[in-house]
Amino acid sequence: MSDEGRRALRAALERAGAVLADYHGVPLARHFGDPAAEYDAATKRLAVFDRSHRTRLSVTGKAPGKMLSGVLSGRMPSPPKAVAAGVYGGTSTYHAVLTPKGKMISDLWATLLGPEDAGGYLLDVPVAGAPPLRASFAKLLPPRFAAVADVSGDTATITVVGPEAAAAVTRLALGLRVEAAELSALAEGDWRTNGAPAVSLRVERTAEVWPEAYSVTGPAGAVAALWAALVDGGARPAGLAVWSTLRVEAGRPVFGTDMDEDTIPIEAGIENRAIDHAKGCYTGQEVIVRIRDRGHVNRHLHLLELGEVPTPASGTELLAADGSGKVVGRITSAVVSPRRGGVLAFAYVARGVDRALFDGREVRVPG
């Protein structure tokens, strides 16, 4: 983030009472003093989350799309189109980036901000996946055809969450040029801008959390001003603790916690979103196709309802229900869920296991 934009957004967070925590080496607001009130606002009214810790990479050059297509596992995004006078729209697409053995380097969202030879691609990358992804790109993408630049320093992202989110972002980010009902009808990844996509605030529908939500990305100073306007207008600032709860409740794994360099996308259950089986070759495709057509994986990520128990730490083991003591799974994320009335946890569980023991209690493993 540029110095001016960094100072403006950090000042806005501090004024709102942010309590910072380390998240994969990056300072991030964990909460703003009252997580219960933050959850209530996000699910019943309006909350705003800073998501600027994620890395944003620009990919430009003579043939960035062709080069990226051989690396990204999903459908490549199409150029934006004018949907009204001065209003542009497009769709970001979700991907995994894999090793030749089909294991994840990272996941990411890809956006084409204009004609390929002009606007280039913007990649939204989890902070945990950014270092290995940059190293992989350095080996796989010829700079002459696809030059990669880290633009995280000049840009920022916030996510506006809650039943009032569409009305708030269309008023404050889109200048009422897009109806709130139109935003609410968008599918995940669909986005709108009021002006040229490469330089305007881009409002994108996201399903990373279960309440209605929109991520807004743009120049850091403009995003900081939007944050302040949202908070001044009644949005409640919210932090990572509540985001994690909403994310797990939505059933969305995150790279760096629920997925890592040992994960095959099919194990994590993201293949329907991240894999385009109709596209041409990409790194790791052979393994994915072989599993799809002739094989299986030995574990799957499941969302488990643990009930009213102490929240387990990441790495906590699940044991076989037959009392043998055999380890059949491990927890990756766990949260206390107001929506489900107990602890929810992501866990990798061995194939074929439908019951497991946690803390001496039997837990059902969904099919």
In words, what does this structure look like?
The protein is α+β, with helices and mostly antiparallel strands and about 375 residues long. The chain folds into two domains: about 1-295, Gyrase A, domain 2 (2-Layer Sandwich), CATH 3.30.1360.120; about 300-365, Elongation Factor Tu (Ef-tu), domain 3, CATH 2.40.30.110. Helix content is about 25%, strand content about 35%. The protein contains eleven helices and 21 strands. The chain has helices at about 5-15, 35-45, 65-70, 130-140, 165-170, 180-185, 220-230, 240-250, 265-270, 270-275, 285-295, and strands at about 20-25, 25-30, 45-50, 55-60, 80-85, 85-90, 95-100, 105-110, 120-125, 145-150, 155-160, 190-195, 200-205, 215-220, 235-240, 300-305, 315-320, 325-335, 340-350, 355-360, 360-365. The chain is globular.
Brief description of this entry?
By secondary structure, the protein is an alpha+beta fold. The protein is 26% helix and 33% strand.
> If you consult CATH, what is the topology of the largest domain?
Gyrase A, domain 2
Give the number of helices: 11
Give the low-confidence spans. none
Our Rg estimate from Cα atoms comes to: 21 Å
CATH class of the largest domain: Alpha Beta
Tell me the structural class. alpha+beta
* Approximate helicity band: 25-40%
Overall form: globular
Question: CATH superfamily of the largest domain, please?
Answer: Probable tRNA modification gtpase trme, domain 1
Count the domains: 2
Mean pLDDT: 95
As a percent range, the share of strand residues is 25-35%
